[in-house]
C-alpha cells in the first residue's frame, strides 16, 4: 500500500477517535453499527484504531492533548518525532476520566479483535506508552486515585504478540476471572476501570472454548485451582465451580479424560456444607451425563428455551421473551434499550436449530463429519424426524452405564447416519438445496421486550381497589398486561415462567415491587400457574449509587462482576450508541454527536479505503432512509452486552425470596390514607427531612448530603417533633413479644430495614427472614445537628410511629429512598399471604449463587 494512503488512513482514524473523546463517546445508532461492523472485518483498521487510542491515551496522560491535535500527534508517532512534555503534567478530573475510558477501550479491543501486531505505528505508539510508564511526574487530580498500574500492565501484555495464546496467560486469566472481591465502597461511575474490565474475562475464555482453542489448558487451569481448597477463599470456590460448569456447557467437544479428571477434583466438595456441596452435586451430575451423552448440557438449554423443538408444540410467539421494565428518567436505561434493540442478532428457525443440533450430536457422540450428511437437501419433516430419533438414542444412553452408553450411542447414531445419507442422496440428485447448511449450534437469542416507566415522577394518592389503597403506578399496568399474555389453564401441569428484568435504580425496584404486591393482594387468581422471576439490572443516575444491587454483589460476586460491572463498563467503550430521543413524528432523532453529519475528507477516505459503508448511506439511515447494514459480529460491545445479559437470565437459577412489607400512612386529620409496599427500608428523621427540604426549595438544583446542607445552607434547620413508637419485638428464635414502652421523644433517625446497606451501624438485616432490624438515634435539641450518642437497635416484626400531637405535628418518610409525606402516623408490617396467614409475601430475585445469609 502507498505510504501516503497508509498514513492518511491512520490520520483519518485519529480524527475519528478525537471526535469520540471530545463528544463523550456517543454516536448515532447507524454510525455505531457501521463502525463496529467495519472494525470486525479488518485487522489493519483495528491496528490503526489501537494506535490512535494509545496515542490519545499518552497525550492525555502527559497533557499534550491540550496543545496538539491528535492527528498531529499521530503524524509525530508515524514520523518517530514524538517528544514527551518537558514540564510536569497535572491531570484534571476530566482527563482522568478520559484515561479510564481510553484504557478500557484498548483492553476490550485487544481481547476480542484480531490486529496486526507488526504494524510499525502501533509498535512505536506502544513504545511511547512504555516510556511513559517509567515516568513519575504524571500527577492525578486532588482527591482522585491514579490509574491501577496492575491493569495498565495487563493492557500492555494483551497487546504483546502471542501473549494471549501462551499457556501462562491462560492460567493468569483464569486466576483473575475466579478472584472476585467486591469493594464495599463501589460506585459505578467512579469505579477503577480495572475492576470494571474484569467482567470481560469469562466471555473471552468461553469464546476460546467455543472455537476449540486452548481447551485442555483452560480446563487444567480451573482444575488446578480447585485442587487448592485449603488456600482458597470460599467465594472463589463457588466461582470456580460455576466457571467449570460454564466451560463444560459451551465446549463443543470434550475429551473423556478431561471430564474424568473434573469428576475426580469436584467430588471432594460433595460432602461440603451448603451451598458448596449442592453446587458440587449438580456439577457432578452434569459431568457424569456428559460422559454418556456429549453436549447434554447445551441441549438441555435448547429444549428448555425452545419448546417448539418438541413434537406437537404449537408456537405462541412468546418463546424466549424476557421483559425489561426500565426507568426512562435514567439515561443509562435509555442507552441500554438502544444497544439491545437497535442491533438484534440473527434469528434462527426451529428447523435450522434441529439441523444444527443433529449435526452436533452426530459429530460429538459418533465422530461423524456433518458435511457427509448433506442435511441441506433434507425436507424439514425429515430433519425433525432425524433430530427426534437422535435425541431418543441419547436419552436411552443416559440410563446405561458409561461403557454401555458409549457403545450403544455409537452403534445407533452410525445407523442413523446411514439412513440420513440415503434420504439426502435422493434429493441431492435434483441439485436443489431445501434448507441452509448446518451451522455451529449456539442458543437462539432471547427476545428483550422493553417496558418504560417513569418512576421518579409518580406520586401515590391514586388509589387501587382495596381497603389498603395501594398506589396505582405505571408498572402495575405493565405487570397486568404481561400476566394477561401468559395466563395458563388451571390444570396445566407446569407453571409458566415469566422472566422480568428491572433496569434502573432503587426507585425502579420500589415501583415494581409495590405494583407486584398490589396485584398479588387484589387479584391473586391472576397469578395461578404463573411463576415470576425478577432480575436486577443496575443502572444508576450519575453520581448516585443504588443499595440493592450492591447488596446482591456483596453476597454474589459473579453478579457483581458480570451484571453490575459489565453494563457500566460496556457503556464506556468507545464508541457507544447514544440513546435516541423520539421526534414529534415518532421517529428517533440522532444522538448527541455523529461525525458523519458533516463528513470530513478523512472520514470519506476511511469509507473508501476500508471499503465500508459510505457516509451518505449512513446519514440516510439516520434520517430513516434505506439502511445498508453489515451484520454485527460478536466482538461488538452491544452484542457482548446482550450475551452477558442472556447469561444472567439463563444461569442465575437460585431464588432469593426478598420479603415484602408495607407502610400504612395517615395524613393530617386522617383526611387521606394509603399503603406503600416496600422491599428495602423506611427512614424517618433528618434524612427524610433533608430530602423534603431539597424538593421544596426552589433554588436546590443538586442532591446534597445532610452534612453539606448543615454547613452550606443557612435556612436548613432540623427541629424534630416528639414521636411515639409501638413495636412487636422478635426474640432470637423468631418468637414475637411486645416491645418495651417507648416515651414520646424527638429522634434524629429511625431506620426500619429489610435489606442491609453500606454505613449501617446496626445488625445487618436478613431480607429472606420474617423480621426487620430497627435502629433509633435520639435527638439532642442543644446541638444544631440534632445528634445524640443514645443509639438503640431492635429485632422487630411491626411498628407504629406517630407524633404526640397529631393535630399539628407531622413528618416525612423515605421509603426505599423515595420521599413520601408529610404524615401524622405510619404503621409498618409484613404483607401477609392470604393462604398462609403467617407467611410473608416475597419478591423472587434470581442470583447466580445461593445466598447464604
Estimate the global geometry from the Cα principal axes.
globular
* Average pLDDT over all residues: 80
Major sheet summary line: 11 strands, antiparallel
Radius of gyration: 30 Å
Q: How many helix segments?
A: 28
Helix-and-strand structural type = alpha+beta
How many separate domains make up the residues?
Answer: 4
Number of strands: 21
* Measured distance between first and last alpha carbons: 63 Å
Beta-strand portion reads 5-15%
Low-confidence stretches: 82-91, 460-465, 581-630
Task: Please characterize this protein's 3D structure.
By secondary structure, the chain is an alpha+beta fold. It folds into four domains: 245 residues, no CATH class; 204 residues; 79 residues, no CATH class; 190 residues, Tumour Suppressor Smad4 (Sandwich), CATH 2.60.200.40. It is built from 28 helices and 21 strands. Strands 10, 11, 12, 13, 14, 15, 16, 17, 18, 19 and 20 form an eleven-stranded antiparallel β-sheet that branches. A hairpin with a 6-residue loop joins strand 10 and strand 11. Helix 1 crosses helix 3, helix 8 packs across helix 11 and helix 11 runs parallel beside helix 13.
Amino acid at each position: 500500500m502507498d505510504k501516503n494512503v497508509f498514513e492518511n488512513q491512520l490520520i483519518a482514524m485519529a480524527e475519528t477517535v478525537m471526535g469520540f473523546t471530545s463528544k463523550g463517546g456517543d454516536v448515532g445508532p447507524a454510525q455505531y453499527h457501521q463502525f463496529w461492523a467495519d472494525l470486525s472485518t479488518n485487522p489493519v483498521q483495528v491496528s490503526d484504531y489501537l494506535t490512535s487510542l494509545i496515542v490519545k491515551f499518552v497525550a492525555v496522560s502527559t497533557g499534550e492533548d491540550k496543545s496538539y491535535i491528535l492527528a498531529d500527534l499521530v503524524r509525530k508517532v508515524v514520523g518517530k518525532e514524538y517528544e514527551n512534555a518537558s514540564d510536569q503534567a497535572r491531570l484534571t478530573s476530566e482527563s482522568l476520566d478520559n484515561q479510564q475510558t481510553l484504557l478500557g477501550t484498548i483492553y476490550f479491543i485487544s481481547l476480542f479483535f484480531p490486529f496486526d501486531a507488526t504494524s510499525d505505528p502501533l509498535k512505536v505508539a506502544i513504545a511511547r506508552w512504555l516510556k511513559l510508564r517509567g515516568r513519575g511526574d504524571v500527577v492525578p487530580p486532588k482527591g482522585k486515585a491514579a490509574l491501577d498500574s496492575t491493569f495498565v500492565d495487563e493492557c500492555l501484555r494483551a497487546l504483546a504478540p502471542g501473549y494471549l495464546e501462551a499457556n501462562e496467560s491462560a492460567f493468569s486469566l483464569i486466576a483473575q476471572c475466579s478472584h472476585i472481591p467486591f469493594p464495599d465502597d463501589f460506585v459505578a461511575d467512579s469505579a477503577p476501570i480495572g475492576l470494571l474490565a474484569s467482567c470481560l474475562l469469562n466471555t473471552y475464555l468461553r469464546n476460546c472454548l467455543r472455537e476449540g482453542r486452548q481447551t485442555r489448558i483452560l480446563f487444567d487451569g480451573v482444575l488446578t485451582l480447585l485442587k487448592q481448597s485449603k488456600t482458597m477463599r470460599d467465594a472463589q470456590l463457588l466461582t470456580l465451580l460455576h466457571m467449570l460448569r460454564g466451560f463444560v456447557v459451551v465446549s463443543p467437544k470434550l475429551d473423556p479424560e478431561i471430564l474424568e479428571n473434573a469428576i475426580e477434583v469436584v467430588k471432594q466438595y460433595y460432602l461440603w456444607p451448603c451451598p458448596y456441596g449442592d453446587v458440587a452435586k449438580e456439577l457432578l451430575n452434569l459431568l457424569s451425563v456428559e460422559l454418556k451423552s456429549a453436549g447434554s448440557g447445551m441441549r438441555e438449554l435448547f429444549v428448555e428455551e425452545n419448546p417448539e423443538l418438541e413434537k406437537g408444540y404449537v408456537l405462541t410467539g412468546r418463546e424466549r421473551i424476557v421483559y425489561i421494565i426500565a426507568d426512562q428518567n435514567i439515561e443509562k436505561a435509555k442507552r441500554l434499550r438502544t444497544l439491545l434493540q437497535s442491533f438484534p442478532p440473527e434469528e434462527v428457525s426451529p428447523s435450522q436449530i434441529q439441523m444444527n443440533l443433529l449435526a452436533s450430536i452426530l459429530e460429538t457422540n459418533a465422530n461423524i463429519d456433518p458435511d457427509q450428511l448433506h442435511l441441506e437437501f433434507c425436507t424439514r419433516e425429515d430433519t425433525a424426524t432425524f433430530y427426534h430419533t437422535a435425541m431418543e438414542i441419547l436419552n436411552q444412553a443416559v440410563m446405561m452405564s458409561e461403557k454401555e452408553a458409549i457403545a450403544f450411542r455409537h452403534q445407533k447414531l452410525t445407523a442413523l447416519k446411514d439412513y440420513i445419507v440415503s434420504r439426502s442422496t435422493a434429493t441431492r440428485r435434483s441439485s436443489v438445496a431445501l434448507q441452509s447448511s448446518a451451522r455451529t449450534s449456539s442458543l437462539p437469542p432471547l427476545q428483550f421486550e422493553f417496558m418504560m416507566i417513569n418512576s421518579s415522577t409518580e406520586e401515590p394518592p391514586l388509589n387501587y381497589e382495596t381497603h389498603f389503597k395501594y398506589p396505582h403506578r405505571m408498572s402495575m399496568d405493565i405487570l397486568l398486561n404481561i400476566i394477561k399474555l401468559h395466563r395458563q389453564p388451571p390444570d396445566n401441569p407446569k407453571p409458566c415462567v415469566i422472566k422480568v428484568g428491572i433496569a434502573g435504580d432503587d426507585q425502579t425496584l420500589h415501583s415494581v415491587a409495590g405494583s407486584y404486591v398490589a396485584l398479588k393482594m387484589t387479584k391473586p387468581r391472576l397469578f395461578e400457574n404463573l411463576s415470576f422471576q425478577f432480575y436486577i439490572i443496575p443502572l444508576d443516575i450519575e453520581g448516585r449509587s443504588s443499595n440493592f444491587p450492591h447488596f446482591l454483589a456483596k453476597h454474589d460476586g459473579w453478579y457483581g462482576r458480570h451484571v453490575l460491572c459489565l453494563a457500566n463498563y460496556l457503556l464506556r467503550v468507545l464508541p457507544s450508541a447514544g440513546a435516541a430521543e423520539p421526534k414529534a413524528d415518532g421517529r428517533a432523532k440522532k444522538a448527541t454527536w455523529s461525525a458523519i453529519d458533516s463528513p470530513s475528507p478523512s472520514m470519506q477516505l476511511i469509507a473508501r479505503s476500508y471499503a465500508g459503508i459510505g457516509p451518505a448511506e449512513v446519514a440516510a439511515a439516520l434520517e430513516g432512509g434505506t439502511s445498508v447494514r453489515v451484520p454485527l459480529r460478536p466482538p461488538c460491545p452491544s452484542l457482548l452486552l446482550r450475551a452477558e445479559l442472556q447469561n444472567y437470565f439463563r444461569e442465575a437459577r437460585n431464588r432469593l425470596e426478598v420479603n415484602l412489607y408495607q407502610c400504612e400512612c395517615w395524613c393530617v386529620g386522617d383526611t387521606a390514607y394509603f399503603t406503600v409496599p416496600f422491599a428495602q427500608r423506611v427512614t424517618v428523621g433528618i434524612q427524610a427531612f433533608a430530602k423534603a427540604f431539597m424538593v421544596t426549595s426552589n433554588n436546590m438544583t443538586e442532591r446534597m448530603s445532610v452534612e453539606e446542607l448543615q454547613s452550606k445552607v443557612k435556612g436548613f434547620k432540623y427541629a424534630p417533633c416528639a414521636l411515639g413508637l409501638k413495636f412487636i419485638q422478635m426474640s432470637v428464635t423468631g418468637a414475637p413479644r411486645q416491645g418495651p414502652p417507648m416515651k414520646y421523644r424527638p429522634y434524629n433517625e429511625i431506620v426500619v430495614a429489610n435489606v442491609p446497606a453500606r454505613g449501617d451501624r446496626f445488625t445487618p438485616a436478613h431480607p429472606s427472614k420474617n423480621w426487620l432490624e430497627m435502629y433509633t438515634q435520639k435527638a439532642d435539641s442543644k446541638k444544631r445537628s440534632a445528634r445524640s450518642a443514645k443509639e438503640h437497635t431492635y429485632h422487630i416484626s411491626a411498628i407504629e410511629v406517630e407524633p404526640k400531637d397529631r393535630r399539628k405535628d407531622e413528618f416525612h418518610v423515605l421509603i426505599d429512598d423515595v420521599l413520601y409525606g408529610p404524615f401524622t402516623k405510619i404503621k409498618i408490617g409484613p404483607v401477609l399471604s392470604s393462604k398462609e396467614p403467617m407467611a410473608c409475601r416475597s419478591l423472587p430475585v434470581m442470583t447466580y449463587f445461593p445466598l447464604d445469609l
